[in-house]
Amino acid sequence: GSDEIACGDGTCLPRSLFCDEALDCPDGSDESLCDARNDPNRAAECDTNLCRLPECFCSVSGKDIPGNLPSDRVPQMIVISFDDAVNTNNYQVLDRFLNSNLKNPNG
């Protein structure tokens, strides 16, 4: 059918079975090329003409700054969650994050 893809051996299976982390093709080819560029079930590419802030943001590289803000105007935030007490075993590590020596790399 139109929603099927051929395995390496010619067997046709539904597109949804490709890159689902389960071997479905007799030759296993449905799981052999599943990176972000080749996955047949990947999300559609972002259309920068349709995608606008604040509802949507496209970044092909993943490094673009929304709204073309200058890098020194981008807020930075670190979230630290504690699941135990601060003590002599972890104080040095936490002090490294909590002192004023760390700076925003963007400026």
Structure, explained:
- With 107 residues, the protein is largely without helices or strands.
- The protein is 7% helix and 6% strand.
- Strand 1 (4-6) and strand 2 form a beta hairpin.
- The model has no long low-confidence stretch (mean pLDDT 82).
Number of strands: 2
Low-confidence regions:
none
Query: What is the helix content?
Result: under 10%
Question: What kind of sheet is the major sheet?
Answer: 2 strands, antiparallel
* Residue-averaged pLDDT: 82
Order of SSEs, N→C?
A: EEH
How would you describe the shape? flat
Return Rg in Å. 23 Å
Structural class: little secondary structure
User: What is the spatial order of strands in the main beta sheet?
Assistant: 1-2
Number of helices: 1
Query: In angstroms, what separates the terminal alpha carbons?
Result: 55 Å
State which percent range the strand residues make up. Answer: 5-15%
